[in-house]
Amino acid sequence: MGAFHAYDIRGIYNKDFDKETVYKVGYFLPQLLGVNNIAVGRDARTSSPEIHEYLLKGITDAGADVTDIGLATTPMVYFATAKYGFGCSVQITASHNPREYNGLKVSRKEALPVGLDSGLGEIERWIAQGKETPKSATPGKVICKDIKAEYLQFQSRYKGDYSNLNIGIDLSNGMAALIVKDLIPEGENVAYIYDTIDGSFPNHDPNPLVAENVEALKALVAERGCDIGVIYDGDADRVMFVDEKSRFIAPDLIIALMGHYWLEKRGLKGKVLQDIRSSKSVGEYLVPMGAQMATWRVGRAFAAPKLREIDGVYGGEFAGHYYFKEFFYSDSGIMASLIVLSILSDLKREGKTLSQEIDKIAAYNNSGEINFKIERKAEAMEAVKNWFTSVEKPTAIMDFDGYRVEFPDWWFNIRPSNTEPYLRLIAEAKGEKMLQEKVAKAREIIESFK
Question: Cβ(427)–Cβ(438) under 8 Å?
Fold first, then answer.
């Protein structure tokens, strides 16, 4: 079953998984997590209604109740899980993937993620083994619950005064369109594109990490002279930004920018989490503000529990996820955007632009993430690590998500994707010439394993 991954269940619907798989996941979840009431939300993909039907049927046939919150962003489901004390929740979504995909994001008590190693693998085995699904003599019931008003009230705490900003926003025809305009109303200084919910994604795939999907936002920013462009992914758990020069901002640099709110404005000195791909610039910018940096594995299944474990103030990932202690240690693209807009509003009042502040943060030349489609991932990773550590003395080696190897003037991370058939490389150096030389050598080594 190719739909079971490290972080969630996801794939092309009716190819990688189907309604029977969904039914069985629903049926086994109450047993797996020992719960009798499961919160369920869904995105607007064309396959979501059928998945919703069979998920609810599986849960109720197992004898558990469903609290159905209807159409929702993924962070709304996290909010419901933690706020109302559910022992389990499921969001039906394929996040940023193209229209033909769908999936299930499962959480347990306190909105902690359930990944392959923490429960989904057990369900995958039960399905593969043909474990029986006898219908309960007392089926569960479905209760509908509208949480939008309370969720908006919570998010409003982080809204600032944006009246001095000119803002462009791309909702990607995704679930952000359900609530963003309630928080950032459309008006003379706020322009929206692709702002209707449409699960067929007629304008672009809802993945802001793919450059072509951000082109329309860049054009909007240039045309209107915006101070910032904001773009959400399909289920609104991620957000990314474009500066006033229509330049895409590497999402890890936003972790550093957020220090102005959490560490300076709010005075919450403490631990900040970054993933293993994050720029060294992030820590160098935040430590003088009072941050203690912690580095961990990629993905919500790892980041959310780690932020809770270290009792961090906030954290972020290279892919545009931002986690907050005050949001139950979970990620919210909309909450992150409200905070970034507040920071930019303050900067503008001081006569500073977003590009100026980002350029202050970014002290290194960065390759961005480079993908290699190869089968012998583990061998290629070892070869790259061994070659570079044989010719230079590393200052640090991290080995918990592929390898991150640091040297005095540069570093690289090489890791296998948990969700796609790729080996991913990212490198950073003090100087473009050095960066290109290092990337070229790594590429040569990796491609010898094709």
Answer: yes
The string of pLDDT tens digits covering residues 3-31 is: 998 889 999 999 999 999 999 999 999 99
Tell me what the pLDDT averaged over the chain comes to. 96
What band does 419 get if pLDDT is binned at 50, 70 and 90? low
* 417 CB neighbour count, 10 Å cutoff: 17
0.90 exceeded by pTM: yes
Contact status, residue 417 vs residue 391, Cβ threshold 8 Å: no
Q: Is 264 helix (H, G, I), strand (E, B) or coil?
A: helix
95 classed as catalytic:
yes
Q: DSSP per residue over 37-60, as a string?
A: EEEEEE---TTHHHHHHHHHHHHH
Structure tokens at 309: 């474990």
Strands 37-42 and 88-92: parallel
Task: Please pick, among 95, 330, 332, 342, the residue that the annotation labels catalytic.
Answer: 95
Q: ∠ CA 276-298-159 to the nearest 5 degrees?
A: 100
**How sure is the predictor about 132, in pLDDT bands with cuts at 50, 70 and 90?**
very high
pLDDT classification of 417: cutoffs 50, 70, 90: confident
If 0-12 CB within 10 Å is exposed, 13-18 middle and 19+ buried, where does residue 159 land? middle
What is the distance of C-alpha 46 from the center of its chain?
22
Give bridge partners of residue 4 from the DSSP assignment. Answer: 9
CA triple 13-15-16, angle to 5 deg: 80
Distance separating alpha carbons of residues 213 and 381, to the nearest angstrom: 30
Q: Where are the alpha helices (DSSP H) in 12-128?
A: 19-33, 48-61, 74-83, 120-128
Using an 8 Å Cβ cutoff, are 48 and 102 in contact? yes
CA 135 to chain centre: 36
Element (H, E) at 272: strand 270-275
Q: Give the Cα separation of 278 and 436 in Å (integer).
A: 19
Helices 19-33, 48-61: inter-axial angle, 10-degree rounding: 40
| Residue of 9, 203, 24 lying closest to 99 (CA atoms) | 203
Residue 1 pLDDT exceeds 60: no
In 198-246, where does DSSP find H-type helix?
215-224
158 closest CA partner among 341, 349, 354: 341
- The string of pLDDT tens digits covering residues 163-214 is 999 999 999 999 999 999 999 999 999 999 999 999 999 999 999 999 999 9
- What are the tokens at 266? 């709010």
Residue keyed to tokens 């994050």: 278
